[in-house]
Every structure is written in C-alpha cells, then in structure tokens.
Amino acid sequence: MNILLIGSGGREHALAYALGKSPLCARLFTAPGNPGTARHGRNRPDLDVSDHAAVRAFCEAERIGLVVVGPEAPLVAGLVDDLTAAGIRAFGPTRAAARLEGSKGFTKELCAAHGIPTAGFARFDALEPALAHVRAQGAPIVVKADGLAAGKGVTVAETVEQAETALRALFADPGTAVVVEECLFGEEASFFALCDGTRAIPIGTAQDHKRVFDGDRGPNTGGMGAYSPAAIITPAIERAVMDTIIAPTLAGMRALGTPFTGILYAGLMLTAEGPKLIEYNTRFGDPEAQVLMPRLSSDLVPALLSACDGDLTGTGLEFDAHRAALTVVMAAAGYPGAVVRGSVIRGLDEAAADGALVFQAGTRADGDTLLADGGRVLAVTALGDSVKEAQARAYAAVARIDWPEGFCRRDIGHRAVAREEAGG
Ligand code: AMP
Ligand code: GLY
Questions:
Q1: Atom 8 (ligand 1): residue with closest C-alpha?
Q2: 85 and 195 part of one domain
Q3: Which of 11, 41, 279, 364 is least surrounded by CB atoms within 10 angstroms?
Q4: Which ligand is nearest to the CA of 142?
Q5: How confident is the model at residue 321 (pLDDT cuts 50, 70, 90)?
Q6: Dist. CA 183–CA 160, nearest whole Å
Q7: Which residues of 272-289 are buried (b: 16+ CB within 10 A; e: fewer)?
C-alpha cells in the first residue's frame, strides 16, 4: 500500500525509516518532509497539510492506504477526523481525543474523574485568583499555560515570587487559561502505548533530556537526547502505569464519546508513592521516536493499521529487549533561542559507517550540500548491549560529523549509565 507521513522533524525521519522498511509499504510520501525522509520515500513539500481538502485529494490521487500523522498540530486541527470522514485510514487521535495533549485542564479533569494519579491542580482564567492560590499554597509550585506550548509554557517555581512572575507573564496574553499544580518529586520517564480506542499495548519506554545544557541546566527544549528502554520502569511499574493510568484514561475517553486511537505518550514522574502522570502527548515523542524505531524488530505498519481499524487483539510490536538505543541531538548554536540558518554540515556518511543512524530534523539540501535550517538539526542514534555502549557509539558518530556551528549535550544517558555502573 502507499503511505503518507505528515511532518518534517527527526521523529518523522525515524518513522519514515521504520515505515519504509515494511514489506507492506509500496510507496512512502512525506509532507512536507526533510532531506532525511527523502532517503526513504518522496517528499511532498508542496502539499499544504493544513489544507485538509488538499490532503484528501492527494490521498485519493495517490491511492494512499494509510496516513500517519507525526506532530501534534495537525491532530489538534482535526486532520484525522477529516480524512476518516472521507474514508481514508489515518493513524492518530481525532481532534476531540487530542485534547489529552492540547488541553492540560481537560486531562486534569479526566484524571480527577477517574482517580488517575497525578499532581493536585487548580485551573484559572484570571490573574488575581491564581495569585491568591499560589500565595496560599507556597513553593515549590508549578505554573503551566493551558494549551499547546511545546513544553515552553511550564515554570517549576522554586519561590512564590517566581510563580507570580510566571503567572503575570502568562496572563499578559488575553484569553489565557493557566493550570497551577502541586510539585512532584522523583525521576521522570516517558511511557508509550499504542491504542485502538478500547485496548492499549505498551510499546516502550524512554528518558528524554529536556534542558539545553549538561547536568540538566539551562532552559527547556523540545528534547536534547534520549535513550530507550528506561530501565527505571520495571515490569511492576509498567503494570501499575497500564492499570492505574493508561487503562482508566482509555475508559474515560470512551465514556465521553471520544475514544482515543493512536500513540498515548505518558510523561511520568516516578514518585515515592508510585508513578504519577505529569502530562500526556498524543503522538510519538521527538527525540524518543529516534530511539524507539531503531529498536523495533517487528513491522510497524500492521500494528498501526490494526489500531486504526479499532482492533489490536493479537497485534504486538516487538522491540529488541536486549538492545539499548541512545540518541544525541545536535542543535544549531543559540537553540532554544534564535539560531543562524544555512551553515554547512558534512560527515553524515562517515558518522553512519559503524552502524549509527543519523536522523535529520532542521536540515535543507542545496544540491549535494546539506545545510542547517532549524533549531534541532540532527539526532544521532546508536544501539548497544547496554546504554553505556550505545552512548559510546553515539558520541563516536557525533565526533565524525563536521559541523562547527552545531552543539550537543555531552551527558545524554547519564542517569542510566550511572545505574548500570552501580550494577542495578
Ligand atoms: P510538561 O510540559 O507538562 O511536560 O512540563 C515540562 C516539565 O516540567 C516536565 O518534564 C517536568 O520536568 C516539569 N513538571 C511539569 N509538571 C510538574 C509537576 N507537577 N511537578 C514537578 N515537575 C513538573
Ligand atoms: N521529547 C518531548 C516531546 O516529544 O514532547
């Protein structure tokens, strides 16, 4: 069958790599795509993915049997609803189900209604009551914009003054809603489940590194590197996550008449009282897809089709349980602030010589020359028998990339490596 993948990031390059390998995939198109996805199929930068009628017409003309939506924005815009209504199979949640990512307030209310463990919260539409609330609660306390903010709308305030500053900044935008949360303590991990509206199967764990600098310092980013699996999620914790978080979420969404189909990505805090939900995303993570897809040992396409068709019974995605994957994001100097575009990147083939996978994100081809064209530019992934081995291979590959204008964290995987070295 022909497949259309929507998106242009490193996640989409990793998905194109996995989809393109499937014996079921005849032709793969990526809209808009990047020079990395072009290695696995044809890019369609001319297709405006916000024009749902145009996407539908493209699917009909190219006889697309499956559309896979990578990023959150087209999900929240209802692309899956419009394609499904036209009889086109599209993988990902409907607009109503994507509220699990698009609205923190919605998710918090669902958690409250179904006893799903999460941080205590209150939602505010106006500054004064929000200020009164943080003064009454004290610090540390967490302030979040209620809406898609790409991780940038969150302040973990160490003091009441910091929380007040964050509230004033958020409410400076008219029409803002804000969620104020209890601060959770523990280690964070990402948990991915493939969902068909009724059932969910766990498909892997990872740990992201959100801060821009080594030692988890500096501003939050989209993610500077990741590894999988996250060994801190033991089989017992996995069961607890499935039973206390994922299953009641699916039941709650069904009860609302908005069943969830697609990838449910739970951002977890592993607290002393057990795993708690920090937030949901309704898609694969970026850069988590760049470590999940290389570990996949079964065909991705039949699993996505079964989820779209509402019946995952008997379907499984298999991951190489004995292999760890680690990815290092290379970003343009200045990221997550303003970056200079257009610097030349060399050495990708040399980096891949020892089996590393170089996924492209913000890149642009100018003839045979590859140019940086965004904040996060490359994700360099390697596999190993341990996180430590994957880490050594990934950094060896990074060293072969000739891009003086780029930078990366040097400590991706530090928690897992420390645990491995401690023997646990
Ligand atoms: P979010 O965009 O909700 O994932 O939040 C971004 C980051 O803020 C998370 O990855 C956590 O590191 C942190 N965070 C969010 N909510 C909380 C909370 N309730 N307690 C502690 N840290 C949090
Ligand atoms: N890596 C975080 C995200 O995809 O949202």
A1: 154
A2: no
A3: 364
A4: 1
A5: confident
A6: 13
A7: eebbbbbbbbbbbbbbbb
Q: Is the CB of 72 under 6 A from ligand 2?
A: no
Per-residue pLDDT band at 235 (split at 50, 70, 90)? very high
- Digit-coded pLDDT (tens) for 369-420: 999 999 999 999 999 999 999 999 999 999 999 999 999 999 999 999 999 9
| Domain at 234, CATH number | 3.30.470.20
Ligand nearest to the Cα of 184, by number: 1
Q: Which of 41-45, 247-251, 323-327, 352-356 has the lowest mean pLDDT?
A: 352-356
Q: 186, 147, 141: which is closest to 166 by C-alpha?
A: 141
Closest ligand 2 atom, CA of 11? 4
Ligand 1 atom closest to the CA of 153, numbered from 1: 2
Per the structure, the complete domain to which residue 32 belongs is given by 2-94
pLDDT given at position 424: 58
Check whether the bond before 229 is cis (ω within 30° of 0).
yes
Query: Is the CB of 101 within 6 Å of ligand 2?
Result: no
Pairing of strands 64-69, 90-91: parallel
Domain boundary among 308, 343, 366: 308
Is pLDDT above 80 for 153?
Answer: no
Q: What is the DSSP letter of 38?
A: G
Q: Which amino acid is it at 323?
A: R
Return the residue matching tokens 């899956």: 80
pLDDT of residue 148: 58
- Looking at all shown ligands, the one closest to residue 220's CA atom is 1
Domain ends where: 135, 154, 182? Answer: 182
Shared domain check, 177 and 146: yes
> If DSSP states are collapsed to H, E and C, what string results for 173-221?
CCCCCEEEEECCCCEEEEEEEEEECCCEEEEEEEEECCEEECCCEEEEC
For 189-230, the pLDDT digits (tens) are 999 999 999 999 999 999 999 999 999 999 889 999 999 999
Nearest alpha carbon, ligand 1 atom 1: 151
